[in-house]
Design goal:
By secondary structure, the protein is an alpha/beta fold. The chain has helices at 21-24, 48-57, 70-84, 93-96, 99-116, 128-131, 151-155, 161-164, 177-188, 204-207, 221-233, 239-253; strands at residues 9-10, 30-31, 63-65, 120-122, 145-150, 194-196, 270-274, 279-280, 299-300, 303-309, 312-316, 319-320. The protein has twelve helices and twelve strands. The strands form three sheets. It has a six-stranded parallel sheet. The two termini are 15 Å apart.
Length: 341
């Protein structure tokens, strides 16, 4: 890997009993995210008894979960099939993977975390109603329940399905303009703690086919920062808040050692951005191996010029220096990457 990396251990209701506390101490978190693509029934929110045991067993470890009620979603999709057959319109995605399905699963997990004192992180919040479950009454360092929002959910809404369709088919889904507004409100008042991407670079062939055949997810990492800097130029938030939500807070939340701040003794993970150089996204300048982006055709108002990883100038205006590889991100209190061996 040319960039720094860390592993989150994948869990479901059938495998976490095999884990011991020493197995997960160096992991930044345990998660069920992404496991739904390997089959139904892999989301921990569906199994409250197992989830309660998980919170109690790994009391000090972040449990980061994808929260949707699979049964509600399956019922919605079956009703849509009765009406549309295999030709379910992509613009229904936000309604089929509904705000209510997200809310019920998120509330279930938060209630269990509060009851057990577990450390819970709510992955990729997509609905306004979920933000009512979150609080900003204590500093991030003291929170036992934290949450994130993805760049695409701050950018798109259900009105964009008519133009972009499968390109913005994510799970959880992009929802209404009102949901988007409430996500912004929760981000700015610190109920939502970090900004992420849920980067899922499916090959375009995997996105094709009918609604139920098209894989959910899209690439987003390359343009996440310039998109947020566009919002800075629009006056929606300050550049300091972007740095806080995308650099400082992730390091605090996951207790990542010597990262996330420009400080003496910390690793020099830096980016140089020209805030006045426009960048139109085309198939020719996309860096993803999958070769596409839901942002194609969009012109952003800033451009990343240089990127340093651990003090090494890795990317310099389109040129790469791959003579050094990235490092494992270490959790505070751990002096080696032995857990990665």
């Amino acid at each position: 890997s040319l960039i720094n990396y860390a592993f989150l251990m994948g869990i479901n209701q059938s495998n976490f009993n095999d884990l011991k506390s020493e197995d997960v101490q160096g992991m930044l978190a345990l998660t069920d995210d992404g496991l739904y693509v390997s089959g139904k029934g892999n989301l921990m929110a569906q199994f409250p008894e197992a989830l309660e045991q998980l919170f109690a067993q790994f009391h000090g470890t972040i449990i980061a979960l994808h929260c949707e009620d699979e049964r509600m979603i399956e019922e919605n999709i079956e009703r849509a099939k009765l009406e549309y057959g295999e030709e379910i319109p992509f613009y229904l995605h936000g309604a089929l993977r509904s705000a209510e399905a997200c809310y019920q699963a998120s509330k279930r997990c938060i209630d269990l975390a509060m009851r057990t004192g577990g450390r819970f992180h709510l992955l990729h919040v997509t609905s306004g109603i979920e933000t009512t479950l979150l609080n900003n009454q204590v500093p991030l360092e003291e929170k036992r329940i934290t949450a994130e929002v993805c760049v695409q959910n701050l950018l798109f809404c259900d009105e964009d399905y008519h133009k972009l369709g499968r390109k913005i088919k994510w799970n959880p889904s992009i929802k209404t303009a009102d949901d988007r507004a409430q996500l912004w409100e929760a981000l700015l008042d610190n109920r939502i703690d970090i900004i992420t991407t849920d980067h899922a670079p499916h090959a375009w062939e995997e996105k094709l086919g009918h609604y139920t055949q098209s894989m959910s997810g899209a690439p987003m990492i390359q343009h996440a920062l310039p998109v947020m800097l566009d919002f800075v130029q629009q006056g929606k938030l300050s550049i300091e808040r972007v740095v806080e939500k995308m650099a400082h807070n992730p390091a605090i939340l996951y207790q990542i050692q010597d990262r996330g701040f420009i400080r003496e003794g910390y690793f020099a993970d830096l980016v140089l951005v020209d805030m006045h150089q426009k960048d139109t996204i085309t198939a020719e300048n996309i860096l993803y191996k999958c070769g596409w982006s839901p942002l194609e055709g969009m012109t952003l108002n800033s451009r990343v010029l240089k990127t340093w990883v651990n003090g090494h100038l890795l990317f310099d205006q389109g040129k790469w220096n791959d003579s050094r590889l990235g490092h494992p991100l270490l959790k505070m209190g751990f002096e080696s990457d032995s857990y990665l061996q």
